[in-house]
Amino acid sequence: MGPFWKTKDTSRVNKVLNEKEVHVPPKVQETDPITLARRQKQINYGKNTVEYANYLNTVPKEARSPASPATPNMRKKASRRGWDGEVRMWRLLLHAYNPDGPNPKNNKLSKQCNN
């Protein structure tokens, strides 16, 4: 008998699923110290801004919504491009808390919308 997914007998498939024979890999975390140090440096750079300080003062932890800018999890396994994208989005969301208001000359998002 071949692999269960190639058979027309669905009872075998149901049996496998019911017996929890399906292997689900555990969540993988980043462990490379060089990568973690680089990510921590990027997070520190973002947290050392006026926008981040205003965000902390404006929005208490209890009042934050899922749409609020959340610090990226540096231990999450992600490619370098994926991680850089998460940091970039976090930083763009923090720009909404700029005390001088959004600056259209420096705002990458407004440049993308105008093109």
Q: What is the average per-residue confidence, as pLDDT, rounded to a whole number?
A: 80
Helix/strand class: mainly alpha
Distance from first to last alpha carbon: 59 Å
CATH class division: Mainly Alpha
* Radius of gyration using CA atoms only: 22 Å
CA-based shape: extended
Biggest sheet character: none
Reported by name, the CATH topology is Helicase, Ruva Protein, domain 3
How many helices? The count is 5
The succession of helices and strands, N to C, reads HHHHH
Describe the structure.
Belongs to the SLBP family. Residues 61-82 are annotated as: Disordered. Keywords: RNA-binding. Residues 32-99 form the Histone RNA hairpin-binding protein RNA-binding domain. GO terms for molecular function: histone pre-mRNA stem-loop binding; mRNA binding. The protein is extended, with a radius of gyration of 22 Å. It has a single domain (31-114), classed as Histone RNA hairpin-binding protein RNA-binding domain (Helicase, Ruva Protein, domain 3). The model is unreliable at 109-115 (pLDDT under 50). The protein is built from five helices and no strands. The relative contact order is 0.11. The termini are far apart. The protein has helices at residues 10-18, 33-47, 50-58, 80-94, 108-114. By secondary structure, the chain is mostly helical. Helix 2 packs parallel to helix 4 (80-94).
